[in-house]
């Protein structure tokens, strides 16, 4: 384990923003913190990065690195009139690191930015600024990184590219990565584990696949022969080309799939839970 927070509380005057939040992050793991606007995500990240003090609770970072934790909170704060390389040089110096031009260029290449571009970063797209923010967070080789809403303002291709880079950082460099978002599309496929936060409380946590399944109220079933299925004949289902969208409140999806596979003439290729955001953010009874 690289990072652990236990029972962290934070209030602003009478507003309880974090009400006993606990989470863990392991080496090489990508962990998501998902919650609606105002749930307390940025406040928690600020506390993890030491930018804001907590009222109570514990915070432990198990790392030998000179910079155990790096991160970006909201949008990366950059010097708009400087180039990417110059920005990186300034932030490296602030962090006590004197890098050669070749080393700075290499850091830019690592996050997919071209060192040949020498114009001011105010000209950069949001995706490029996010990448530069990531390069700054990665200076001094932290063992874990927290990224607050790193996909905000990116188009679907930008999101996919940044997701790939995050996977590479976790996989090849073994960095533990904690990412916040209020968007499931951004975190669902990417994360090993998810924490769901609402009104300052972690209301669910566990393997991402399990969390997504718990909050699913419909399933997209891919296969052949589905339209003729007896199992689906009495179900609440919408047939599409090559798939069926099954709305399912009560019965177990595994039972339905078992019935389907035992029917002659049906071949199943996949079943994808369609997670309902409202259900995900709903507090579980008890
Ligand atoms: N410095 C502050 N002073 C007073 N209230 C604050 C402060 N910082 C955050 N808050 C309040 O704490 C609550 C949680 O804010 P926070 O930014 O942590 O949420 P969030 O989950 O990151 O939201 P979003 O997804 O909209 O960024 C909000 O009600 C916010 O107004």
From TrEMBL:
**DNA-binding among keywords:** no
Its keywords, alphabetically, are: ATP-binding, Nucleotide-binding, Transport
Q: Establish whether keyword ATP-binding is in the entry.
A: yes
Domain of life of the native organism: Bacteria
Specify the ABC transporter domain's residue ranges: 3-224
Gene3D superfamilies the UniProt entry points to: P-loop containing nucleotide triphosphate hydrolases
GO function term, MF aspect, one: ATP binding
Query: What PANTHER family does this protein's entry cite?
Result: ABC TRANSPORTER ATP-BINDING PROTEIN ALBC-RELATED
Specify the protein name.
ABC transporter ATP-binding protein
């Amino acid at each position: 384990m690289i990072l652990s927070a236990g029972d962290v509380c934070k209030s602003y005057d009478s507003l309880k923003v974090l009400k006993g939040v606990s989470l863990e992050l392991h080496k090489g793991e990508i962990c998501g913190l998902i919650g609606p606007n105002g749930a307390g995500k940025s406040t928690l990240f600020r506390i993890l990065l030491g930018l804001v003090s907590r009222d109570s609770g514990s915070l432990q970072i198990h790392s030998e690195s000179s910079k155990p934790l790096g991160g970006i909170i909201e949008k990366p704060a950059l010097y708009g009139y400087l180039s990417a390389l110059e920005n990186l040089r300034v932030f490296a110096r602030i962090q006590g690191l004197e890098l050669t031009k070749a080393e700075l260029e290499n850091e830019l290449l690592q996050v997919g930015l071209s060192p040949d571009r020498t114009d001011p970063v105010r000209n950069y797209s949001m995706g490029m600024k996010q990448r530069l923010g990531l390069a700054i967070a990665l200076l001094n080789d932290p063992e874990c990184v927290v990224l607050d809403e790193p996909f905000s303002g990116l188009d679907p291709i930008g999101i996919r590219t940044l997701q790939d880079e995050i996977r590479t950082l976790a996989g090849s460099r073994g960095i533990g990565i904690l990412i916040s978002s209020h968007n499931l599309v951004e975190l669902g496929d990417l994360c090993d584990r998810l924490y769901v936060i609402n009104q300052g409380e972690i209301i669910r946590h566990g393997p991402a696949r399990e969390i997504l399944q718990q909050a699913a109220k419909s399933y997209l079933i891919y296969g052949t022969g589905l339209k003729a299925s007896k199992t689906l004949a009495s179900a609440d289902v919408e047939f599409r080309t090559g798939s069926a969208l099954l709305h399912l409140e009560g019965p177990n999806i595994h039972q339905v799939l078992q019935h389907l596979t035992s029917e002659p003439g049906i071949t199943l290729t996949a079943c994808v839970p369609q997670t309902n955001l409202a259900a995900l953010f709903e507090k579980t009874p008890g």
